[in-house]
Amino acid sequence: MLDRRLLRNLDFITIFVTCMIVAVSLIIIGSATHVNSPSEDRYWYVQRQGMFALVNIVLIFASLHFDYKSLSRYGNALYAVNLVMLLAVMFIGQSALGAQRWIQIGSLSLQPSEFSKLIMIIALANVLDTRTGKLNTFKDVLPIFIYVGIPFLLVLRQPDLGTSLVFMAILVGMIFVAGINTRLLMTMFGAAIALMPIFWHFLKDYQKKRLTVFIDPNIDPLGSGYHIIQSKIAIGSGMIFGKGLFSGTQSQLNFLPENHTDFIFAVIGEELGFVGAAIVLLLYLVLLYRGIKIAGAARENFGTLLATGITSMLTFHVLVNVGMTAGIMPVTGIPLPLMSYGVSSLTTNLISIGILLNIYMRRQKIMF
């Protein structure tokens, strides 16, 4: 049994906000998919997502019995497993939507790149734990970039530009907290911007198309620009209070593609309006704020790095997904955390929340 003195240290605000986001997710997924379910059951997606949400919540509370610090012992092993998973995708992965990102296990499709983000956070926290305050020169940070760069390139090879960029967001957040020299960090940012024209030539044609239609979706209104145009129409048509659940024309009539995954926020904007979208964003703001607070309250450096990596990952996901659906960022295929349909994404995010709870619960030494 978990000691009651530890239970009193649980972050009930994070638990409440997470449950609220998952509850809204199930309602919106049900609204978005009840007219185009792959089976006779109109709420197949909701039942599947809800079942895995419950399983993960049970696993989270079971994991609270273990001290998160023990994860540091498995950093190198997890990193190796991560590389094996990403390499396996290249050889036995299933292709869909122009990318080879999934491994089929019976009726379940798993996306290793989703799990690799959390694995990378744990492994990188283990590496940076002993290097905090020692990242003063390019020679000091080069091994860190190589360490993250290998899985980054494997994910980019799938191709999955969105997830590979999440690796960069995690890296920047964690090395910043690890005390990297600020001037060195700014120099690297400048170099990255300068190298963007070269990076452009390594992008796939569809990725280049997404970036060009971001500037003007009407260049290809029935192709690459279709998602952005329909998403903006959906959000705009919701106005202040929305059209009501199960009443959104763009999503219900299938004008809005991927309405239960990447573009679920557009469904929220259409059916719940500005007010509903603002409430959802407020829930995310509270969740991210709690992540920052947990990072600051951690009892040691490893916990701070873990919480920072998780919060960086969630922040990047929310900013890019919402920006993508609103037409102010390019379409990258990044899901909205805890909201978009997807077993791999949901599992990764809920386990991440579980780690945050574990860190906060043990934020100070408790006398037994």
TrEMBL record:
PANTHER family: CELL CYCLE PROTEIN (PTHR30474), PEPTIDOGLYCAN GLYCOSYLTRANSFERASE MRDB (PTHR30474:SF1)
Transmembrane segments: 12-33, 45-66, 78-97, 140-156, 162-180, 185-203, 263-289, 301-320, 340-360
BP terms from Gene Ontology: cell division; regulation of cell shape
GO MF annotation list: glycosyltransferase activity; lipid-linked peptidoglycan transporter activity
Keyword set, alphabetical order: Cell shape, Glycosyltransferase, Membrane, Transferase, Transmembrane, Transmembrane helix
Span of the signal peptide: none
InterPro entries assigned: FtsW/RodA, RodA/MrdB
This protein's name: Peptidoglycan glycosyltransferase MrdB
Protein EC: 2.4.1.129
Topology relative to the membrane: Multi-pass membrane protein
Main location: membrane
GO CC, any one term: plasma membrane
Pfam family, one: FTSW_RODA_SPOVE
Record's subcellular location: Membrane
